[in-house]
Amino acid sequence: MFIMLIFISMKxxxxxxxxxxxxxxxxxxIPIGYVFVPRLQMVISLFxxxxxxxxxxxxxxxxxxxxxxxxxxxGKLLWEREKNTLTxxxxxxxxxxxxxxxxxxxxxxxxxLFLAFGDTAAHVIGVRYGKIRVNSETSEKTIEGSxxxxxxxxxxxxxxxxxxxxxxxxxxxxxSLVEFFPFGIDDNFTLPLISGAAMEIMVKxx
Length: 206
Hints:
mainly alpha
């Protein structure tokens, strides 16, 4: 029911934001694939994805003709803040590589699913129903959106076999808090790494 609400709420978004959010949802294929793929193979694949993303962004930002070409065909998919810095896709690629490299397999799977579904829910529900903002002048973050993120992350946690519900639920709460508070760094980078680190610490402490 909650998933249906998210997709229905997407209708209120612009065409390009919908495309962007559908692409964001499609990143769930990476953690789902990781369930069936050996760690080394996934680490190598994500390293090259992250490296390629960084190179593309570097060329886009430093070489004007390439930047113009990129903006002509993909510019409408970017947030305004991304046009002069790394894109969310690059932040995601780097965070995915680091998550798989440093975290236990199921923790990496969890945080990347949190990011794919929870972060999307936060934006869609926040835009459609959000009223309470962390900073009404400078932030799009809303309490309603972050609660949606938490609900989705908790649902995902209940479906995963490891590392245990207590750890996964704690990771869900951390992920939603990271999504809510503006750290000044793209949450495609901070959400999986901070929530994953919290779960790793819990696993080693229990």
